[in-house]
Amino acid sequence: DPARAHNKELQNMVDVVTSGTENDPIYDWEVGDRHYTLTSSTFTKRQLFPHEQTLNIHGEVAQHPFSHERLENERNALLYIARNTKIPVPRVLGWSNVDGVGCLTVEALHGALLIDILDDDSEDLSPADKVTLKRNVDTFIYDTVLPELRKLRSRTLGQLSGIVFPPPRVSALDDRPSWPPKVSTTERYVYCHNDLAQQNIVVDPTTLQVMSLIDWEYSGFFPPEFEKPFWLDPSGNGRVDEEESRRLVALLDDSRDTDIALTLFKRVKSSLRCLPDTIFSFVLWIRIRSSRVLSMVFSRFNTKES
């Protein structure tokens, strides 16, 4: 049953809708800012449409920062990882963007989530098999996943699209609305999944081997310290303490790296100063003239308003 990997999650949700046929059911449910659909061959997650969005305790639409960017980043990451590494990930089947609502469809995985199969109440595996499975997962991540990811390096901080949004354990402490992309003098940023937790590892309960890594929404090029061994956490929740979060924020604010916008400004300024004096003077005159015109316009506007 391809729904096996999601069975516990489904059981914990009261709004699961089952349709299709008895032999080929279709499951639909919502969590946070995502709508999920699982069939025998596909798994789809998309943003919520305006009429589906939930309200918070104040009666306002619940805010989910970077909702569209995160989903599009997962699509980009799955393609990037499949093309450049040996890490198994779900195959992308489709992507759409209708009125700003992103929708990603991947192949369904016929396996089980590591967090479910290692649960104390789960009787799918014997205690001995659970020990073997844990050992296999450790070996796979240390010998395959981390080395493959560390080969992917960049001088630029952030996601593949060029923007920067850190994982929740950072934004929970520092919720600034935007993070400037930074560039380093060396390729010190490595590609990080940013949530290698038990709920994001799909395993084969028969072979006791890892089948796939899922949920790449927060992945990107970050300092290597961002990749934590969350798969070792029995609860599989990937939480870190406040002190750890502060260290990650400090890494993002590292003064050794330069704000890209500031770098571009300095380059343009330097290029203008390399122009012949007459041209530079002309550009400067235009800048001064434009500022004066704008000042006049705003001055008249303010006069009319008063």
What do you see in this structure?
Helices cover 36% and strands 20% of the residues. A six-stranded antiparallel beta sheet has the order 1-2-3-4-6-5, with helices on one face. By secondary structure, it is α+β, with helices and mostly antiparallel strands. It contains eight helices and 14 strands.
Itemize the secondary structure elements and their pairings.
Blueprint: H1 7-11, E1 17-20, E2 25-31, E3 34-38, E4 42-47, H2 67-84, E5 92-98, E6 101-107, E7 112-113, H3 114-117, H4 127-150, E8 153-154, H5 168-171, E9 182-183, E10 189-192, E11 201-204, E12 209-213, E13 220-222, H6 242-252, E14 258-259, H7 260-273, H8 277-305
Antiparallel strand pairs: 1-2, 2-3, 3-4, 4-6, 5-6, 7-11, 8-10, 9-14, 10-13, 11-12
Describe this structure in a few short sentences.
The protein is 36% helix and 20% strand.
Structural class: alpha+beta
First and last CA, distance: 70 Å
Inertia-based shape: globular
Low-confidence stretches: 1-14, 264-269, 283-306
Strand order of the largest sheet: 1-2-3-4-6-5
Helical residues, percent:
25-40%
The radius of gyration computed from the alpha-carbon positions, rounded to a whole number of angstroms, is 24 Å
Q: H/E series, N to C? A: HEEEEHEEEHHEHEEEEEHEHH
Assess the beta-strand content as a share of residues.
15-25%
List the keywords:
306 residues, alpha+beta, six-stranded antiparallel β-sheet, three-stranded antiparallel β-sheet, 8 helices, 36% helix, 20% strand, globular
